[in-house]
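Subject: Sanity check before I submit

Could someone independently write out the structure tokens for this chain? I want to compare against mine line by line before I put it in a report. The sequence has 66 residues.
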Amino acid sequence: MLWLSEILMQSHELQSFEELKVKLSERARQGEVFFRMDVRPQFQDTPENWEDILESVFTTANSIPK
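---
Independent answer below. Compare away.
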């Protein structure tokens, strides 16, 4: 299981929500099957619907054949 807090702790270089989306997509394509959002990303550009967006990014990336 992939946790959002895990991505954030392991990726200190992330500076924006957009960069987080890219990192999440990369991790999903590496074979992660489940994703949990246990913290809110603290970037200035984090939108109100951040959970829906991250779920969509994960699901889309996970559906691409490896």
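---
OP: Matches mine. For the report I'm noting this point. Residues 2-63 form one domain.
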